[in-house]
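Let's practice the habit of predicting before peeking. Look at the sequence and jot down your guess about where helices and strands might fall. Then scroll down.
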Amino acid sequence: VLNARDYRNLARRLRDRVGLNLQMAFTSKEAVRVRTRDPGWTLTARRLLDSADVIIVDLSEIGAASDWELETIRAEDAAARCVFVSLWGRADAAEAALKARGFSNRLFAYAPDGESQHRGAFREAMLGAMRATLA
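Done guessing? Here is the structure:
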C-alpha cells in the first residue's frame, strides 16, 4: 500500500470475503500478504483489524509498532478477536508484554518451522476469536 489508490484497492479486496476464501483454498498461499510504507501503515493496520474475523498477533519482536498495535487492539476492544503467538525462544518476553498491557489472552508459542505443541488449544482459541467476531 503505497498511496490512496492502493489503500482503496485493499479495502475493496478485503470486502470480497468469498473471493479471498477461494484464493486461499485454491492456491498455495497461507495468508494474504499486505505490505505498506511507514506513512500509511497505521491506517492500513486499522483497516485490517476492522476487516478480520480473527486477528493473529505475532509478538516475537516487541517494539514501537507492536506497542501501537496492542494499544489499538485495547482501544478497539478487540482482544477477544485476537490470538497471540510468538517464537518459543521469545515467548517469555511476549507474555510479559501482554500482561504489562493488561491482556489476559493466552500466548501460543511456535518453533521456527511453525510447529506448535498445543494445536488443539490453538484451534479452540481461533474458534473462540471467530465466535467473538460473529457474535
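How did you do? Residues 119-134 form the longest helix (16 residues).
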